[in-house]
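User: Hi! I'm working on a homework problem where we have to compare a predicted structure to a textbook description. Could you give me the structure for the chain below?
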Amino acid sequence: MDRNASHKSAVQYLYPPVDPFDQRVMEVPGGHRIYVEQCGDPGGIPVIVLHGGPGGGCSPAMRRYFDPAEYRIVLFDQRGCGRSRPHAGVEGNTTWDLVADIERIRAELGIERWMVFGGSWGATLALIYAQAHPERAAYLALRGVFLMTQAELQWFYGGGAAQFFPDQWERFSALIPADERGDMIGAYHRRLFSGDSALETRYARAWTAWENALASISHEGPGGDSPADYARAFARLESHYFANAGFLEEDGQILRDTGLISHIPGTVVQGRYDMICPPASAWALSERWSRGELKLIGMAGHALSEPGISAELVRTTKAVARQAERLGF
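Assistant: Happy to help. Predicted structure tokens:
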């Protein structure tokens, strides 16, 4: 890692902005339409970028972690968010629907194997996809690992992170009556699906502000109000997935099934001071994943935009490009 990375802007490490050469909307089962785009070299190393949340959507900056002369960069907005429709919709919206969507995209684009790049919930989805389709993932690049366990949810919504950010937690928890605070995910979920648009927006913004406030080590103060449409999709989808334990068979399923990806190489880039997804999860994964290399980034939190994290991710994509033939792309 660049020792000076924490003192620079993440943008300094990224490739220049690039426009898509292909944009499309795919009809998928369950009444959803998902936005898909491709950037870079149509004949390059294929990579699919999995955004966080659930419900975060893609941004143009996500294209810039890859050399457009080397990579065929595929991004899509997962069900219910970004440019996909219906917006904030949760019917037919589970982890397994998203895994199936990734496979539909791969098949439609005629890609045999690809690099899977994801952070936070995107790392969760990358791991579950690779475990379900290990023959399709040539390399995993993960950031801010989240394993969708009850321990992680309890840390963030049950008072763990609150020990470090009591002021932000007060803003988040004060909207919920004291007798409901033992289950903050459930309490917010009921309000986010109340059917009252103004109420849903109020609680969606509070939910999103709590997460935003803790995302970056370089940011202090309230998370601020997100745009209503973004916050509503983000909060509704997160609470939907979290209330349903990620639609997994059992708690700890991802670690249980690590053997399914033992042959797949990868890199885990983890902020040492990540308050949303603490490093214990990345460490536990790397202990079980023989070909997964853990890169702990000092003075970095959770966000993709952390300078040290961006520097290491770009370093990873450059290294993969140099080894493309050996990795079987």
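For your comparison, note the following. The chain has a mean pLDDT of 95. Residues 5-149+247-327 form a domain with the Rossmann fold fold (CATH 3.40.50.1820). Good luck with the assignment!
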